[in-house]
From TrEMBL:
Pfam families named in the record: bPH_2 (PF03703)
InterPro entries noted in UniProt: YdbS-like_PH (IPR005182)
Name the record gives this protein: YdbS-like PH domain-containing protein
Keywords, ordered alphabetically: Membrane, Transmembrane, Transmembrane helix
Length: 199
């Protein structure tokens, strides 16, 4: 039986060393052929955006909060109760019946409000009809006393010629004087010189 020749330890270690050195040499040879791309260096800058809400030549000023003017009520009420009572008594006559029917809704659904800012007239079943005007547009005020002067009508003339007739107003003289004092061009209160008229 023929015996296989044994390899010496020196021959067994040489072959792997040659293989590893040849592989390393081939890797270096291949890496030298691979082209390297060089990229230009970018200059990174911080960009800050400013939002300017006003022109550059105008200084920015903080808005000043104005206090709202408090509305003070001088008079708030409806027609004088004497107007309704007198018209109901005279309503039994057929001649006075139309005036009585007009006095009933005036007593229940009509309100006058005089404040330091405006005059307000509220009417309608639910108060949906409302008209306001400022004292600045008042041109003239006249009063017409009713009955024995317990109540009266206040006729306000505006700058555009419109006449606002407020019927059966209690304290009508005081209210008319207040309206004239609040107007821009106060005038003398005009009262009907013929005296009280009807109801």
């Amino acid at each position: 039986m023929a015996s296989t020749p044994l390899l010496s330890p020196s021959t067994t270690t040489v072959a792997p060393n040659r293989t590893s050195s040849s592989l390393t040499h081939q890797l270096f040879h291949l890496s030298s052929k691979v082209p390297f791309h060089t990229f230009p260096a970018k200059n990174h800058r911080l960009i800050t955006k400013l939002n300017v809400s006003s022109p550059a030549n105008k200084p920015v000023t903080s808005p000043t909060s104005k206090k709202p003017i408090e509305e003070i009520i001088f008079f708030d009420g409806g027609a004088h109760y004497g107007d309704l009572a007198a018209n109901l008594l005279l309503g039994f006559t057929l001649l006075w019946l139309p005036l009585t029917l007009a006095a009933i809704p005036r007593a229940f659904y009509l309100r006058y409000r005089f404040t330091n800012l405006r005059v307000t007239v509220i009417s309608g079943l639910t108060g949906q009809d409302r008209s306001d005007f400022s004292y600045k547009v008042i041109k003239d005020v006249q009063v017409v006393p009713r009955f024995i002067g317990e109540w009266g009508d206040v006729v306000i003339t505006l700058n555009d010629g419109t006449k606002v007739d407020l019927r059966s107003v209690p304290k009508f003289r005081e209210i008319a004087e207040y309206c004239l004092s609040m107007a821009e061009n106060p005038a003398v209160l005009k009262e009907d010189s013929t005296g009280p008229r009807g109801f």
